[in-house]
């Protein structure tokens, strides 16, 4: 077998494994199965949510049950184009829900984003979201002031990361 064929088959296998893993995690969250979502993470794994912050593996069930399903219902989370090198995985997603928040209860919000994952031994070491949160939040009717507060929080998070330092300096 030519090496390029073997490499392509190897990468396809890694991508399939990652695709199954991220699908299991997302569908566990949709089904309010925090323990099932947590099983997808390494012992020291962390879920970094764009709205609620970071949750270590032992706290992922709490995130799912006490945050996601407290504030929303009727989730749909579709994963597209998962790809993995074995250590890193990416997938595009479309995510939606009906809000339970008092000022926008019953309104449906649709978001899109990219999941950036670090992997170890076939499990998620970290799950990070890069989401276009503002499209969904505007569908819920969030005020400009509320959207500004969220934007400032996301901006602070981005600028606090090491990879942003040279961008802040402009060199």
Keywords:
171 residues; alpha+beta; six-stranded mixed sheet; 35% strand
* Largest beta sheet: strand ordering: 2-1-6-5-4-3
Average pLDDT figure: 90
- Biggest sheet overview: 6 strands, mixed
Work out the strand percent.
35-45%
Dominant shape: globular
**Rounded Rg:** 17 Å
Number of helices: 6
Distance between the termini: 47 Å
Task: Provide an overview of this structure.
With 171 residues, the protein is of the alpha+beta class. Helix content is 43%, strand content 35%. A six-stranded mixed β-sheet has the order 2-1-6-5-4-3, sandwiched between helices. A hairpin with a 3-residue loop joins β1 and β2. It is globular, with a radius of gyration of 17 Å.
Question: Briefly, what is this?
Answer:
The protein is an alpha+beta fold. The protein is built from six helices and six strands.
Q: What are the SSEs and their pairings?
A:
Layout: H1 3-30, H2 34-38, E1 41-49, E2 53-56, H3 60-71, E3 72-84, E4 88-99, E5 108-120, E6 123-131, H4 133-139, H5 144-159, H6 165-169
Parallel strand pairs: 1-6
Antiparallel strand pairs: 1-2, 3-4, 4-5, 5-6
């Amino acid at each position: 077998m030519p090496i390029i064929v073997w490499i392509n088959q190897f990468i396809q296998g890694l991508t399939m494994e990652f695709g199954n893993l991220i699908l299991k995690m997302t569908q566990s969250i949709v089904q309010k199965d925090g323990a099932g979502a947590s099983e997808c993470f390494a012992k020291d794994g962390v879920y970094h949510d764009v709205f609620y912050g970071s949750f270590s593996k032992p706290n992922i069930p709490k995130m799912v049950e006490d945050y996601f399903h407290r504030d929303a219902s009727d989730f749909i989370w579709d994963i597209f184009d998962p790809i993995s090198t074995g250590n890193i995985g990416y997938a595009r997603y479309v995510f939606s829900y009906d809000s339970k928040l008092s000022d926008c209860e019953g309104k449906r919000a649709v978001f899109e984003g990219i999941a950036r994952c670090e992997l170890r031994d076939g499990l998620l070491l970290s799950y990070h979201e890069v989401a276009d949160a503002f499209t969904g939040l505007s569908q819920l009717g969030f005020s400009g002031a509320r959207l500004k507060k969220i934007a400032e929080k996301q901006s602070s998070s981005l600028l606090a990361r090491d990879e942003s330092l040279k961008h802040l300096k402009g060199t």
